[in-house]
UniProtKB/TrEMBL annotation:
SUPFAM superfamilies associated with the record: P-loop containing nucleoside triphosphate hydrolases (SSF52540)
Residue ranges annotated for the ABC transporter domain, each copy included: 8-230
Keywords: ATP-binding, Nucleotide-binding, Transport
Descriptive protein name: Putative ABC transport system ATP-binding protein
GO terms, molecular function: ATP binding; ATP hydrolysis activity; transmembrane transporter activity
Pfam families (alphabetical): ABC_tran
GO CC annotation: membrane protein complex; plasma membrane
Amino acid sequence: MRNGDAVVELTDVRKEYSDSVALDGVSLTVLPGEAVAVMGPSGSGKSTLLNMIAGLDRPTSGSVVVQGTDLGTLGETGLALFRRRGIGMIFQFFNLLDDLSALDNVALAAQLTGTRAAQARARALELFGELGIAGRRDVYPARLSGGERQRVAVARALMNRPALLLADEPTGALDSRSGEQVMDLLLDLNQIGQTLLLVTHDERLATRCATRVIEVVDGRIAREQSLERTP
Ligand SMILES: Nc1ncnc2c1ncn2[C@@H]1O[C@H](COP(=O)(O)OP(=O)(O)O)[C@@H](O)[C@H]1O
Ligand SMILES: [Mg+2]
């Protein structure tokens, strides 16, 4: 049964690689405004799950519907457009472009969807202000701290106002203090309505930020728990 309001609806998703089964029948619904944390051992399928939702890879069987669009009906061009416009993604190692300034890294995300350069810069500047990195706009990634790099990556992910923000171990490469700051930032974003799905190893950060925690073991959802979030 399809839930028309869902941001994400996975139905019996299976993903096989040549020598392994990464996802073994995962069904998952994410509603608007949720912050879902995905936990589980290394190699259990967490990144594969995110990549299915991001349209970075396709399931062997089962369906992935994001914002009412069945990704299985999209060709490669359609999937690329979906990735640029429909979702924002942040990664453990930031994935910033080294030869662009912080601001240009962020503005580029909007330019790739056809937004004019001046308008893209204006939106990027607005986000830099909101995320507390306005003073770092002209700095290149190599000169930014890990926490600053991840803030820039969050700004980039938010540029096109995605319905869904996906984060794969966003604090995995950060010291605990910057990790907490990035997690607080994600919490703030969720509290103003941003739907969030994040993979993390850190149970404390997960419970601080998430409204629901799911645990993936051997490619299956083994446990699921809704949380009361205390402000
Ligand atoms: N591109 C790939 N090719 C082959 N096997 C892969 C690929 N990506 C992931 N896997 C395998 O799928 C399983 C799940 O991997 P992954 O989703 O990265 O786990 P996690 O993010 O939980 O650590 C692992 O056994 C991994 O080796
Ligand atoms: Mg992973």
